[in-house]
Amino acid sequence: MSTAPRLTALDALHRSLGATMTDFAGWDMPLRYGSERDEHNAVRTKAGLFDLSHMGEITVTGPQAVELLDYALVGNISTVGIGRARYTMICQEDGGILDDLIVYRLGETEAGSSEYMVVANASNAQVVLDALVARSEGFDAEVRDDRDAYALIAVQGPESPGILKQLTDADLDGLKYYAGLPGTVAGVDALIARTGYTGEDGFELFLKPADAEGVWQALTEAGKDAGLIPCGLSCRDTLRLEAGMPLYGHELNTSLTPFDAGLGRVVKFEKTTNEGRFVGREALEKAAERAESAPPRKLVGLVAEGRRVPRAGMSVVANGEVVGEITSGAPSPTLAKPIAMAYVDAAFAEPGTEGVGVDIRGTHEPYAVVALPFYKRQK
């Protein structure tokens, strides 16, 4: 079996733009094109263009597609309207998080068959696919691996609506956040979704791999006067960190339930499909009770008082004791200070808590505890 990284349909274009490439979840992906800070700031103030074709698209169709998804996932998928999307999770039987997902309800056929697209993180796409296939037994539904059927391009930032409007017939003004509609972009068919992972307004465009280069070039041309630049995975990470968005493998993993991660709101016990049964329900009910009676470590923001950057795995300390662990850390271009997300004991989770630091190679660097997110865009 080949161990060579997979290439997106835009690989040659990234290289022609001088991108620094990196292996990410088995894909060769652009890390940056130039300055990470410039790319980050472009998304915050103007617009950035991303290749996200490494994400895992899984199509679920059939008369019992919604029953399967309500059973397999923790969210209430039966309440998602056509053209809408929902953030949810897939958990193990013990409640541990296998992945966080976005589910799009694409439509219905005349025969009463529903169609959904599940978008998984690149690193977990095969795990999610295998779990959905296993959980589909007994349901009149088909689970299809569509990772090769789509390229995914995102345009993110305050100028993104104006840029995309030049290239599409779709009603972008009527497209709500966490919604998607079919339309054409630069003359080719696409699913246009108002979703993203940057904390900014923006769009994710699912299209055929053969159409990806033409759409990328058209967006580049349409956005040149608005300050649009290509952006890599490095600034995507600092953007999502400032926006307080969790990253699988950092803030989320199989040893944490959604309640441990402070995301218990995505678990819907009131589902009526499948008589309320879903994978992990019993364990998650216990996790919810535990979170009520003895709050687990809480995910908080930390802002450095100095210049040293915390990294995942470093200890959070107070009064000479370890009280938590960093999950993600980076210099924040927007705050002009190092920032981090960390799980800390509930006693030290209140914003403004005094005496909290991070153990950076034996030195306890002072950090301020703040509420997440670090950055929220003005609507």
In brief:
The protein is of the alpha+beta class and 379 residues long. It has helices at residues 11-16, 36-45, 65-72, 125-135, 160-165, 212-222, 233-242, 281-293, and strands spanning 6-7, 20-24, 27-32, 47-51, 56-62, 85-91, 97-108, 114-120, 142-145, 151-156, 180-185, 188-193, 202-207, 228-230, 298-304, 315-318, 321-332, 337-344, 356-360, 363-370. The protein has a 6-stranded mixed sheet, with helices on both faces. It has a 6-stranded antiparallel β-barrel with strand order 15-18-17-16-19-20. It has a 5-stranded antiparallel sheet with strand order 6-7-8-5-9, covered by helices on one side.
Fold and architecture overview:
The protein is an alpha+beta fold and 379 residues long. It is built from eight helices and 20 strands. The strands form four sheets. It has a six-stranded mixed beta sheet with strand order 11-12-13-10-4-14, with helices on both faces. Strands 15-18-17-16-19-20 form a six-stranded antiparallel β-barrel. Strands 6-7-8-5-9 form a five-stranded antiparallel beta sheet, covered by helices on one side. Strand 11 (180-185) and strand 12 form a beta hairpin. Helix 2 packs across helix 7. The chain starts with 5 loop residues before the first strand and ends in a 9-residue tail after the last strand.
